[in-house]
Design a protein that fits this description.
alpha/beta; 245 residues; 5-stranded parallel sheet; 11 strands; single chain
Length: 245
């Protein structure tokens, strides 16, 4: 039986935005959504768990690649003098806040990061350290290896699925309070769909726009009857939030 039951509310306005991404990013997204005049509802469907990764000595490395700010915390002070290439501006900001001085942003996706690395690095100048999440980054590492680079891929964190959709998210769907839901990764989208089905809330998304960061996330959402599935023009938060305007 589904765990969610309707609850009476004095106000039911469809201006809520469901934020499914994990912390620490969810809080920042909620702040931005609130500044736009919407009511953020933070309900992460994944939790980030750090993984202790043995890292090669910094003296062996040419540069570091990161596809998520979640990977930055795994990098010790001894590596922070190295150039760091980030997939986008948010990850670059995490790196600068952590003390990295030579930070470049690809302002795009994994393919853009590979292109940036090929442009500013030299396959003859030493390995690239690529820190990423579990089950992520194989395509990027493979791309760079075909260009002649030695890539040392290290797992810095894993995204652990939560067991249930939050009670607040269930209530908001049942009471028709959501106008949109934000999906910042394909993994997040897939698991949210699973949780919605488990709570028998599939039909409740008919009045909700699903906003996806890219094609893969959008494809994972297609099995539910959303009002619309919209895809950000670029894989970053600014483009995601622009879909709310």
């Amino acid at each position: 039986m589904p765990a969610c039951v309707p609850t009476p509310r004095t106000i039911s306005l469809p201006d809520g935005v469901l934020i499914t991404r994990p912390e620490p990013g969810a809080g920042e997204t909620a702040r931005r959504v609130a500044e736009m005049g919407y009511r953020p509802l933070v309900a992460p469907v994944l939790e980030i768990s750090p993984v202790r990764a043995p890292l090669p000595p910094s003296g062996r490395l040419q540069a570091i690649l990161a596809t998520s700010g979640n990977a930055i915390a795994a990098l010790p002070d001894s590596h922070r003098h190295l150039p760091l290439l980030a997939v986008g501006d948010a990850t670059a900001a995490h790196a600068r806040a952590a003390g990295f001085l030579q930070v470049s942003s690809a302002d795009g996706d994994a393919a853009a990061l590979a292109a940036l690395a090929a442009r500013v690095c030299d396959p003859r100048s030493g390995p690239l350290l690529f820190v990423c999440g579990r089950c992520q980054g194989a395509a990027l590492a493979g791309d760079l290896r075909t260009r002649g680079f030695s890539v040392l891929r290290r797992i810095a964190y894993e995204a652990v699925p939560v067991n249930r959709l939050s009670a607040a998210a269930c209530r908001a769907l049942l009471d028709g309070e959501l106008t949109a839901a934000l999906f910042y990764s394909a993994e997040t989208a897939r698991h949210c769909v699973t949780l919605l089905r488990a709570e028998q809330l599939q039909e409740k998304v008919r009045a909700v726009d699903a906003l996806a960061i890219g094609e893969h996330a959008a494809m994972a959402l297609q099995t539910l009857p959303w009002r619309r599935i919209r895809i950000a023009t670029r894989p970053n938060q600014e483009a995601m939030l622009a879909l709310l305007r």
